[in-house]
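Look at a sample.

——
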Amino acid sequence: MKSLASEIIKNLDAISSINYQPHTGQQPFHESKARFRILAAGRRFGKTQSACYESVHCAIIQPGAVVWIVAPVFGQAMISWRMIRHFMPLSLVKDFHLTEKYIELTNTSTIWIKSGDNPDNLRGEGLDFLVIDEAAMIKEETWLEALRPSLSDKQGRAVMISTPKSQNWFYDLWTRGQDPLYPDYESWKLPTSANPYILPEEIEEAKRTLPELVFRQEFLSEFLDDVGSVFRGVKKCIRGALHDPVIGETYVMGCDLAKYSDFTVLTVMNRAGDLVAFDRFNQIDYTFQMERIKILAQKYKAKVYIDSTGVGDPIYEALKRSGLNIEGYRFTNESKKQLIEGLSLSIEQEKIHFPDIPELIHELTIFGYSVTATGTVTYSSPGSYHDDCVISLSLANYGITRKAYVAPTIPTFNTPSVGIGRFGETIGGEERRHRNIQSFRI
């Protein structure tokens, strides 16, 4: 009993030595006993500070605890790394592992800094405590398929913090935290002004100079649909399913080629604007990429619209020589602007439709714009996120808005039952049936 009491006193002393003092707006969050806490708050409220304190607190009072802090991209995760190093009493630290980015405590607990851009790297380990920073910017499947299961065996706890970003999965969890039927969940929605250290005149200046909807989202922490998005009405366009070609139908294909760590993405649409085939792959030699492009184009007898800028030019020329009905599209800031705005209009008017493909939906949802000092509008995905699906779909949309054409007769392979596997390997008909590979989504 004496040993337990002394351990409690030791932990309390350690916690009191954490270099953190919450402000009044943060107190209800820290006092909550809910297993899942969801904090939606305006910019500069102190969300990351609150979550980092909770991580350190757990690591101290629970010897051997495994704590993860996950952010959308690694640069953002490093904010938590620096903050925790500032909070942590050095007397409790066994080692700072600078390369792997984790802190090892003298009680064997560890606090790890992780990036959420690759869900496959977040699988496997059981967690005692999890923080998801800027959760609204992370894919839903990262939470559902990688992070949520990691809490199961240890009955781990989780904190999700974010400024709102439309009404996505983070909003769904926040709504659950408002429902008394879910006692394990608790949520808060707090504006920037709830931080007493932010000067009121700073908030007033933002209100005067920012667009109203942006101010309401970023400073008032309101969940608004499609704010700041280039593509509005994405959810309304989600319908239908991928399917094989239909006799008498004509098709177009958009092709965005991989550059460095990007993905090559192929999207096939019919003249009604329905996405019927989708393929996404990377780290494949250009020779195999061209074969993969040809196989899908030949299957649908589709006219191909391809990015022929830079590295795409020789590939476009090679595919053209192979007999494909193909047209190159050269990207400049102005031509990309026209392409993206054309896709934006088609989505807003619900002229195109696509199945619920997570990679595609996520890219469309987060795709944004910025205005330079000279007033030039540029379009891109935030941070290190990909935009390959967006570009491919915009090229296909460009194709279906062109003057109608007669589908060309393209030679097909001698063995129509042969397909291409997910990593480029050729597979025969019988093996293909056993592996249940769908040729329209390779």
Residues 404-442 have pLDDT under 50 and may be disordered. The chain has 14 helices and 17 strands. The domain at 235-435 is CATH 3.30.420.240 (Nucleotidyltransferase; domain 5). The first strand starts at residue 36 and ends at 41.
